[in-house]
Amino acid sequence: MSPAPVIIAIDGRSGSGKTTLAIELAARLREHHKVSLFHLEDIYPGWNGLAAGIERYVTTVLSPLRRGEAAEWVSWDWERHYDGEVRTTRPAEIVLVEGVGAGAAAARPLLDAVIWADSSDPDRRARALARDGETYEPFWDQWAAQEDQWLADDDVPARADVHVLNRADGAAPDDVLQALQYLPAVAPALLPELAVRRAMQLRAERIDAEPDAAQLFDALFGGSANAVWLDSSLDPAGLAPEAAERSRFSILADDGGRFGQAVRHSSGLTRVSAGQATATTDGPFFRWLDGVWGRRALRAPENYPCGFTLGWLGYLGYELKRETGGTDVASPTPDACLIFAGRAVVLDHAEGTAWLLALDTPDADDWLTTARGAVAAAAAPGSRVSAALRSTAPQLASPQFTARDGEAGYKAKVADAQREIAEGNTYEVCLTTALTAATSAVPHDAGPDGLDPWQTYLELRRRNPAPFASYLRFDGLAVASTSPERFLQIAADGRMRAEPIKGTRGRDADPGADAALRQELETSAKDRAENIMIVDLLRNDLSHFAVPGSVAVSRLCAIESYATVHQMVSTIDAQLQPGMPRAEAVAACFPAGSMTGAPKVSTMAILDRLEAAPRGVYSGAIGYFSLNGAADLAVAIRTLVVRALGDGTAELSLGVGGAVTADSSPQEEYEEIRTKAFGVLSALGTDFPQG
User: Fold this and answer.
1) Is 485 marked active-site?
2) Which of 502, 530, 600, 676 is an active site residue?
């Protein structure tokens, strides 16, 4: 008896390309493994025998293979319409079983993974009849009716681990193989395939040019359903060293290319899409992240100054707090959306250069050629003029926002938070609310009378440039952020840094009045107390995974000025202990203490009660997880979220909030959220809602 094999079922309706997919997938797996392949069509007892065939398959084929034994089974003679010869399928390291019913309910307890192959009904019929011709055509409707009845009672697609839209273009086998590597029951058997992926080389080219970033993103990734622009839109020239460092690099990428992927996580389910295939797994998101990031898989090119060497980019939503001590709250937006970028452009604003990065794959040369041309075009004289004209294009319809909490309601919640403080349940509560509006547009396909997220972001960055601005597009969801605040940075060598912001004043057009506002913030005892409380909290968060004695506050309550606000910023540094899981170090600090208050866990519970609604993307984190083990994440504030509702409309959402302490004035807290909303609302041509 052999060791129990890994058994993978490839199921789907007739004509979905299961047989070809299984044969091609087996060929790829045989490069590193011994593989057996079984076709269910060899065992169905006739054209009316789907149910009986599934039963035969489970009892005479699948059960012995699961035990590591050879399976002896009776084949069906399709010409004589009777039982045929006895055949044997021997176990191997990996067994692929393919056919309608391969992933049926009776089979699933014996399987390690189920792949569901799908394609359109016309394509399926054409493929099936092209393969079996006149033999199959008289029985197509009869067989399809059996499939309908079976799937009505056994929803295999809903229970499959991997879904693949099989377009018969040759891409499906590689996409499926990539998706299988995320399934815990299968991944250990695919270590050779993982090793090949992890051995990929990085190709890098430096171009001495300063392309217009908006034009470049539009040219390279404007047509991509999933794309990310981490946009340091604040000019670093003349800034203090700390602020200049945060504003140095911009990263532009999508999920295209050979290894491009997109992941969405919601309420414990992670879905990873690789080309035509999507794998679904359950479990905590940070555990999943630890499995795909944190190892130093790629080293930076010589003289390359940025921490990003390809990897994952996107956002972590606030509701991931369920994994870090908070309660489980469902959100209408995914709890995390990331893309894996196997190619990207990095702009170094300090050096005036563009870096092209790509994994060394067969499609890398073509992409690098395209990217070089796009950089040259975006750096050409006149390109900035066209970008500027786009960025100032007026919105045809200014959205009218509604506040989740009116003025009286928000002030009442401030008072409620202060009662919690007085009772000793917390000593700082970062209370938030949300403004929402409806639009006739949907992300990436704006209607003529609605709001275009891309144009809106260009206007946002023009009016309110920020070191951690970003534009994210995830098929049906757009995020436009002008965040000034770093949540957490982890360098490849393990250096960690958090830079919380607490304390805000609006800017004034009069220089004297503006200087007075800055001075008022700098000397405010209340704002300093808020800031120092969060510094203390973050020192504790970082200490969980830091080298003992390495946690230090290098800046305390410094004042930084941006286009619409003055803000109070502190910096906490630490050194990650060698060998510690980097994803867990991120989780230990998540969500940002500047968006919860302190102590974090008990205060999050108070916020759940006071806010009585999910925050979604807002007050989560936006940034990257690089293949060299580095990460850089901003706090998702000053952030507009545009979510398609599936009916031709979309919802706009803008979160705002502030820290409540025992000394807070409810009126001043309300004015603070108005100040924080101004930068985004003014770009939309609308005002803070009254009432």
Assistant:
1) yes
2) 502
